[in-house]
Write a structure and sequence with these properties.
Number of strands: 19
Structural class: alpha/beta
Number of helices: 13
CATH superfamily of the largest domain: Alanine racemase
Shape: globular
Bound molecules: pyridoxal-5'-phosphate
CATH architecture of the largest domain: Alpha-Beta Barrel
């Protein structure tokens, strides 16, 4: 089930201190998750979680994760800038490459980041953009379906990422020739997967593949990067992923393939780390009864895109009404001129009145960060609920000036902005 650790009074206090909508993050919860992950993999030499910045790119959060021993997984210039600003350096940064401009490879190399190459053609790019480092990681795409038992959990054959096996053989030979001394192997084959067997199944595949490649190419393995994809229970009937069991499952696979140890492990969890520790706090501001009953919030898909984009379920609660029966059925909407701007469709909820504080759960990963400015809608503030119970605004809400910042050559707009401020 979703995370119900924060009481209604916390949401109420936050909404008294800051105008809605905003995303609220729980520092204690984020730290606890980082610690649980580190504990579950403490058996492994040189384990490190590289938090996927795209899940929650706020420097206050990244600094908390740094204090918990995490590194960062970056995939753009601005994500690298965030990493640098928060004091991450060298091998505390994983740069996951893709079809990116040369300048980003240059920046990653300048920071001394691990580079995770997405394709055999990136070897030349990397060489041109600095040099081939002694340790270099490659992303594997095994093709076909990814199954756990008989169940299909992903379709790597349709994914744009990674080297084929044959390209890995050829690519690692090239890298070795160009000075690489050891390699990492990475794959991301399933997303938001709450099955405790996901990581162990992926790990077994990567361990066997890396061992075989290492023997064929005669290049030692530096680390295996299990990437992200460990899921969270968005729905009340879903069980949380038991991260301890995940760690033990990976350990069993590790001991089979690497009985002598010596190979490090990395993860790049985003969703699992912060997803359940964020809430979008909103007010109900409108109601409407036509063919359906609608509740209009002061937030919209610009603040949380997952329901509109993926039809994703996010649990919704109404502050102070947790004990009331869910005997009303609503579509819960935002204000975009776009019909898929609905946080919930035909959801059973308690009777909602205008002015009620409505909380959307599990927005701590791929929530704020997926936000956009469609309809000229502005992105919200982000608030941290600190361990001592106080609140800290860690990002202010956007203003029209932010929205029009790239139209600074338009004098009429600038005059109106000045008048409005
Ligand atoms: C998005 C991403 C992640 C994190 O994925 P989650 O689903 O949030 O765990 C990790 N690694 C890479 C390369 C990614 O692109």
């Amino acid at each position: 089930m979703p995370n119900f650790h924060l009481s209604d009074s916390v949401f109420r206090q936050a909404a008294e201190a800051f105008p809605t909508p905003f995303h609220l993050y729980d520092e204690a919860g984020i730290r606890a998750r980082a610690r649980a992950l580190n504990k579950a993999f403490a058996w492994c030499p040189d384990f490190r979680e590289y938090f996927a910045v795209k899940a929650l790119p706020n420097p206050a959060i990244l600094r908390i994760l740094r204090e918990e021993g995490c590194g960062l997984d970056c995939s753009s210039e601005t994500e690298l800038m965030l990493a640098e600003a928060c004091g991450f350096a060298g091998e505390e940064i994983m740069f996951s490459a893709n079809a990116m401009p040369d300048s980003e490879f240059v920046y990653a190399r300048r920071l001394g980041a691990y580079v995770n190459l997405d394709d055999i053609t990136h070897i030349e790019v990397l060489e041109r953009c600095g040099s081939i480092p002694e340790t270099v990681c490659c992303r594997f795409n095994p093709g076909g379906d990814f199954r756990i038992g008989t169940e299909i959990m992903g379709n790597p054959g349709e994914a744009k990422y990674g080297f084929t096996y044959d390209q890995l053989v050829a690519g690692l030979r090239m890298l070795k020739e160009k000075g690489a001394k050891r390699f990492g192997l990475h794959a991301f084959l399933s997303s938001n997967n709450t099955d405790t067997a996901y990581y162990p199944t992926l790990a077994a595949l990567l361990f066997r593949t890396a061992k075989e490649l290492s023997e064929r190419v005669e290049l030692p393995i530096a680390f295996i990067n299990l990437s992200g994809g460990v899921g969270i229970p968005y729905r009340p009937d879903q069980e949380a992923t038991d991260i301890w069991a995940v760690g033990e499952g990976v350990r069993a696979a590790y001991e089979q393939v690497f009985p002598e140890g010596g190979v490090a492990l990395k993860t790049e969890l985003g969703r699992w780390m912060t997803g359940p520790e964020g809430w979008l706090v909103t007010h109900a501001i409108r109601h409407k009864d036509t063919y359906r009953h609608y509740i209009g919030l002061d937030a919209c898909a610009a603040n949380l895109m997952r329901p509109a984009m993926y039809g994703a379920y996010h649990h919704i609660t109404v502050v102070g009404k947790g004990d009331l029966p869910c005997d009303h059925v609503y579509d819960v909407t935002g204000c975009l001129c776009e019909n898929n701007d609905k946080f919930a469709i035909q959801r059973a909820l308690p009777a909602i009145d205008e002015g009620d504080l409505v909380v959307i759960h599990d927005t701590g990963a791929h929530g704020f960060s997926m936000g956009y400015n469609y309809n000229g809608r502005l992105r919200s503030a982000e608030i941290l609920h600190r361990e001592d119970g106080s609140f800290l605004q860690i990002r202010r809400a956007e203003t029209p000036r932010d929205y029009f910042a790239t139209l600074d050559s338009d004098e009429s707009l600038q005059r109106i902005l000045e008048r409005m401020e």
